[in-house]
Amino acid sequence: MNVLTTLLTMDSGTARIAGYDVATETKKVRSAIGVTGQFASVDELLSGRENLQLMADLHHLGGNESKKIVERLLARFDLAESADKLSSTYSDGMRRKLDLAMTLVGRPRIIFLDEPNMILRVPSDGGAKSLRTLLARLDEHAIDVEEFTVQMPDLDDVFLALTGHSSSPAESKTQVITP
């Protein structure tokens, strides 16, 4: 995952993400992807709303557009009631939802999920309910998922890949990939 997200360089070979060469077009790759790590990377000194607004500012979204995106993501991830509370007061599950919402602020074409079982908080149903919830939230964010694959080579590793497209005709394919 570190190579595909341009955090490490490849020793040899080639890789393309969203049509861009990982080795030579790192800025374009980074502009096309979103990454949600194994542990929530929210700023606990900020509220949920402020965390999302920070991401909107980093993506250079305009004032009105960023406010709409922030409000829509807070609602879609069931964080509206606690939006103005410090994220340090959030439960682990709420932090994970906020972290995933932060990944979606920039409308990435490809989303990398590191340790999706941590992100999805896999319940006793084997994760099916959490996966359906995630797919519904992506759909609500104008990402239509066309296909997904779940592979579990052993109990510690999970690979989840979602392939879809934006509901907006101007936007291109979105994929969710996990190592």
Automatic annotation (TrEMBL):
Keywords, comma-separated and alphabetical: Antibiotic resistance, ATP-binding, Nucleotide-binding, Transport
Primary localization class, coarse: membrane
Bilayer topology term: Peripheral membrane protein
Top-rank taxon, per record: Bacteria
Domain ABC transporter: 1-116
Database matches in SUPFAM superfamilies: P-loop containing nucleoside triphosphate hydrolases
Signal peptide (residue range): none
Pfam family, one: ABC_tran
Localization annotation: Cell membrane
Protein name: ABC-type multidrug transport system ATPase subunit
Organism (species): Kibdelosporangium banguiense
